[in-house]
Amino acid sequence: MSASPTFASLVPEFDALRRRFPPGFESSLVLPCLRRLQEAWGHVEDSDIAALAEYLAVPRVQIEEALSFYGQLRREPVGRWHVEVCRNVSCSLRGAETLLERLSSKLGLAPGDTSADGRFTLSTCECLGSCGTAPVVLVNGVYHENASAPEIERMIEGLERA
Amino acid sequence: MPRIVVDGRAIDAAGGQSVIEAARAHGIDIPHFCWHPSLSVAGSCRVCVVEVEGRGLDIACNLPATEGMQVFTDSPAVRERRREMLELTLLNHPVDCGICDKAGECTLQDYHYAHNGAASASGERKVRATKFHALSDRIVLDNERCILCSRCVRFTHEVSKSHGLGILHRGDGSLLRETGDGAFARDPYSDNVLDVCPVGALLSRSSLYRARVWYLQPTRSVCPGCARGCPVDLWHRKPEWRLNALDPAKNRAIVRVTPRDDGRPEGPWICNKGRDLAALFERPRAMQAMLHGRAVPLDVAIDAAADLIDSSKTRIALVSSWASNEELAAFKDALGERFTTFVKEDHRPLPGETIEDDFLIRADKNPNATAAAALFPVRGKPMSAAPSGQPPDLVLAWGEGFDARGLPDGARAIVLDAYGHADHARADVFIPLSIQTERAGHYTNFQGVVRAFDACFDKPASVADAQELFAALAVGARVPA
Hints:
- The structure holds 2 protein chains of 2 kinds.
- Chain A is an alpha+beta fold.
- Chain A folds into 2 domains: 7-69; 81-161, Glutaredoxin.
- Chain A has 7 helices and 4 strands.
- Chain A has helices at 7-18, 30-41, 46-56, 60-69, 89-93, 96-107, 149-161; strands spanning 81-86, 120-125, 137-139, 142-144.
- Chain A has a 4-stranded mixed beta sheet, covered by helices on one side.
- In chain A, β3 (137-139) and β4 form a beta hairpin.
- Chain A is elongated, with a radius of gyration of 18 Å.
- Chain B folds into 3 domains: 3-89, Ubiquitin-like (UB roll) (Roll); 123-281, Alpha-Beta Plaits (2-Layer Sandwich), CATH 3.30.70; 290-475, Rossmann fold (3-Layer(aba) Sandwich).
- Chain B is built from 12 helices and 22 strands.
- The interface between A and B is medium-sized, with 11 and 16 residues.
């Protein structure tokens, strides 16, 4: 594994991004920069907030607002396997609530929690844009469509052995 | 200058004015929550809805006034939409007016009575949120009462520029919060959010639960905290609601201070020091006249002071930069010719206080140094020697900040002060004075703007009013100097 990247190591990418926006639109860069930071180390560190505010010269509050508004952005690390269950209308109608309960008891985790060994995080999420194949479960960003409880449980067992 | 018609009344709107601004300038108040005359347009509360002929419903805060526009602020369609918007605003608002400090001056309460009045149409449980969140050590936030109008957030972005507040999360989980870096706690103007809040969400921790607003009355005043001299209202108990039980001091207490909007270009804002004037005024008072530290009746002390003035030759006066224009003029008229007069700096910046900034706060922490310097233009070190070269044999020190150690050998001292100080006992004559809240007068600020203040309370009988005192000291002069 390579050494974890630092904020400074991402600045060249941010600079490239910045050139795609007209001057004075620094606040529009908050979101792509936060996505890139999360992609780099799984979540957004508190120190990244101050660093990004300084880099973009935007008030810190704007970054905190964006971070809390978007459920996809995280301020805490997640486990090795991040299991997310969509809880919006289509998935709920197609049994997402039961699915979430089964996953919760299978993993011994309440939604939002990470297992003590750091292997699993269980979350709910908002619409994944795949209502036609509801319910959808996301595992480390990979879609599992038309998810059924037994199938997802088998997959979890596979991950537990992995 | 576009002419628009509001509810059948033709009004001339200034160029660039929105409908809500034009209407307001002509005395027509369109209901609003998120709009504030000194902040940017958010357009989120939708309560200022109006009907425009040929265009339908629109929000007056974001609608430029254009020539010939026919605006209706109370048509059936407007009334219905406004009622619906109020219903939405109240969806998660608690009905705890009975224990809310804002009750009685709450816009939401007023609008509900005026424009809705109906019980909630929703059977859903209201969203529960934090009732007591400390935004800073000065301000407590009730998230259930917050209607997310964002006025306070815009205040920190546009006026105080601390960027210390934001609305986190989304939907009915949205929460007003301070940033993690403590910017709001450091904002020297933070308490203005108490006034811009249209509901009881932001509350002062210093006046929390101290009084219902309808027991209080405002008295016009001027903040003495610095040379800006901001116009303020001092709120204290109405005489008809005076407390006969409990501590009688509560009847003479300043419960809160709010800015008084006199249309000045700086806007309707004051700094936090101005909010804390109660603590400044209510410091331990000097209430007893003294001769060499021995308590005497006030008139005995006044006679003794007059005798001292008569019997001395080289007299120096240090006048107070906290004195009103009237008091300074009274001193000049009565005693000005007999004293070489210097202006004293009564207050200096306190440790931790904001010294000066590019908004309101001035480095001179006295309200009337401008008027005092205009009346008494002598410069130089007062204690070393009078301009005649003779060391002074009498020093009259008026106000706080007098250092008795600087007194020349053999000189007598008359000290006039409103607040208690151990040095007073060392003065040959000490005469206690009234404070700003016990008299009326004017201050002249550093820009030359003269502002008036009125008395909140009667002066205690054992202290003198400076304006009358100087006349008495001059009359007491039995032997011409």
